[in-house]
């Protein structure tokens, strides 16, 4: 990041741009009005985005709430509730100018006081991921009603990347100040500033949002209403799209073997856009605390034994590509100048012998998220058996999978995580010693510890110069690829099925989570 004014909304306004740079005249080409019928899977536990951050909640509530910024597919920051921002030369003072005339859905004005309350009070208490990202922040100050200053204790390289709606949603101070956040009745009827307002939730059936007719962007939203239909069975979700009941099926909501078939229906299409910010990355947890996974050569053998290409083609139907290491290629500072692990069964067998593997049977915990993951686990079991590693599958439901990983009760286990555009935001947590703690399936579950890696991740987070950060993170990648704390599998694509009558569906790096306001319906 260069130490200068990063972007000015004035230039965008002069060009006639609106959300994520979509020209207003292009939006106007779509027919205004109509209803979008979408699928949500599973049914979210709640819609108060400051309290619940799982995938279904983010997809729906990201169109109710807003953040200060949005991000394009290259993870470049874009205006949202903030129109411009500056950073001082030390990288320790960020000043945001807020958009005038923005109102909450109940008509109250949105001001800098809401920003301070959201980030410094509400979310520090309720949002664990943001709380960790705000560790570098010394103070948050409302300079005037439309100006906010974030003062940092030290430079934090990825700081400008933490302002999207799922990471830092703006919360109405006038509704939540002085209340018990978790039990506030307003949680059931969320109030945001976004293009859609909450209308109704019929449990087990649907959630309805309606257009915010006083939205702060002219001519947005362009549809009257969005229904998110709750359909528990994957085959039934596929049938709902095939029959025309629903227009929009988010990534992961139907089995991958159905995606290509459904995308070939008349008036249907598929896209993998809108996941760039999250950069879903899958791997195999290797429990470094236990033999034989405590041996580097054994872990390297596992890497050589896996046929990632076949798994991507067969289980993922081509909607995945082999990972080259710990960094997804969509995040900053990813490098291919690192060790490679092409499938080589002979090399795997040689490393197993050198590691002293005695042929003991290892427990493999699949991810209980449907047929694609079940097929992946079976392919992996066969791959490891061909190299001489004995594996038994231990099937669980989602709750059981969480519990076993929370308690480190596994040998090998599938997972995938989001990497949030920057290694300091979404990679370091899986490899640093300070993140070894029972109770989470998404921290350093493997138990890997290397003081040099800890030092480098800390230095990378505190460095603001991009070239210096690049050099630091190259060192990290080289060490991790040599020591193989986990067995990296794939960069995942979650294909979104939609009717071609829907236009402007994906306008940011988080896709459906904040783009429905610009969607058109022909």
Automatic annotation (TrEMBL):
<dbReference type="GO" id="GO:1904680">
    <property type="term" value="F:peptide transmembrane transporter activity"/>
</dbReference>
<comment type="similarity">
    <text>Belongs to the bacterial solute-binding protein 5 family.</text>
</comment>
<dbReference type="Pfam" id="PF00496">
    <property type="entry name" value="SBP_bac_5"/>
</dbReference>
<dbReference type="GO" id="GO:0015833">
    <property type="term" value="P:peptide transport"/>
</dbReference>
<dbReference type="InterPro" id="IPR000914">
    <property type="entry name" value="SBP_5_dom"/>
</dbReference>
<feature type="domain" description="Solute-binding protein family 5">
    <location>
        <begin position="77"/>
        <end position="433"/>
    </location>
</feature>
<dbReference type="GO" id="GO:0030288">
    <property type="term" value="C:outer membrane-bounded periplasmic space"/>
</dbReference>
<protein>
    <submittedName>
        <fullName>ABC transporter substrate-binding protein</fullName>
    </submittedName>
</protein>
<dbReference type="InterPro" id="IPR030678">
    <property type="entry name" value="Peptide/Ni-bd"/>
</dbReference>
<keyword id="KW-0732">Signal</keyword>
<dbReference type="InterPro" id="IPR039424">
    <property type="entry name" value="SBP_5"/>
</dbReference>
<dbReference type="GO" id="GO:0043190">
    <property type="term" value="C:ATP-binding cassette (ABC) transporter complex"/>
</dbReference>
């Amino acid at each position: 990041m260069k130490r200068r004014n990063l972007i000015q909304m004035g230039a965008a306004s002069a060009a006639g741009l609106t959300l994520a740079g979509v020209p207003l005249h292009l939006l106007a080409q779509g027919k205004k009005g109509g209803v979008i019928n979408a699928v949500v899977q599973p049914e979210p536990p709640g819609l108060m985005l400051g309290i619940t951050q799982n995938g279904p909640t983010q997809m729906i509530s990201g169109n109710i709430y807003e953040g200060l910024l949005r991000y394009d597919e290259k993870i470049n920051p874009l205006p949202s509730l903030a129109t411009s921002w500056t950073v001082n030369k030390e990288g320790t003072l960020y000043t945001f100018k807020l958009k005038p005339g923005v109102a909450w859905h109940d008509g109250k004005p949105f001001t800098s006081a809401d920003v301070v309350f959201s980030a410094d009070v509400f979310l520090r208490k309720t949002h664990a991921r943001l709380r960790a990202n705000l560790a570098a922040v010394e103070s948050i100050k409302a300079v005037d009603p439309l100006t906010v200053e974030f003062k940092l204790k030290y430079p934090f390289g990825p700081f400008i990347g933490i302002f999207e709606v799922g990471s830092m949603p703006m919360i109405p101070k006038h509704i939540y100040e002085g209340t018990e956040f978790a039990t506030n009745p307003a949680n059931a009827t969320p109030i945001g500033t976004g293009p859609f307002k909450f209308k109704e939730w019929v449990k087990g059936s649907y959630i309805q949002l309606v257009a915010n007719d006083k939205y702060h962007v002219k001519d947005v939203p362009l549809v009257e209403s969005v229904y998110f239909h709750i359909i528990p069975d994957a085959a039934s979700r596929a049938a709902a799209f095939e029959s025309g009941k629903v227009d929009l099926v988010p990534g992961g909501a139907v089995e991958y073997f159905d995606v290509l078939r459904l995308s070939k229906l008349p008036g249907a299409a598929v896209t993998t856009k809108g996941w760039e910010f999250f950069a879903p990355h899958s791997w195999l947890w290797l429990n470094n605390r236990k033999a034989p996974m405590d041996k580097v050569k054994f872990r390297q053998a596992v890497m050589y034994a896996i046929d990632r290409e076949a798994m991507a083609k067969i289980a993922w139907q081509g909607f995945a590509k082999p990972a080259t290491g710990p960094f997804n290629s969509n995040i900053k500072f990813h490098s291919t100048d690192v060790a490679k692990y092409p499938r080589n069964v002979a090399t795997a067998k040689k490393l197993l012998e050198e590691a002293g593997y005695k042929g003991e049977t290892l427990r493999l915990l699949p991810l209980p998220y449907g047929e694609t993951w079940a097929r992946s686990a079976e392919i992996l079991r066969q791959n490891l058996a061909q190299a001489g590693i004995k594996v038994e599958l231990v099937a669980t439901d989602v709750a059981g999978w969480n519990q076993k990983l929370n308690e480190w009760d596994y040998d090998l286990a599938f997972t995938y995580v989001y990497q949030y555009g920057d290694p300091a935001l979404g990679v370091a947590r899986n490899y640093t010693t300070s993140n070894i703690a029972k109770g989470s399936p998404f921290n350093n579950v493997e138990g890997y510890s290397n003081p040099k890696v800890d030092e480098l991740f800390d230095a990378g987070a505190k460095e603001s110069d991009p070239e210096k950060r690049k050099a630091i993170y190259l060192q990290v990648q080289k060490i991790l690829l040599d020591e193989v704390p986990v067995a990296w599998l794939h960069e995942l694509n979650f294909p979104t099925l939609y009717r071609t009558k829907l236009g402007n569906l994906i306008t940011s790096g988080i896709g459906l989570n904040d783009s429905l306001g610009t969607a058109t319906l022909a």
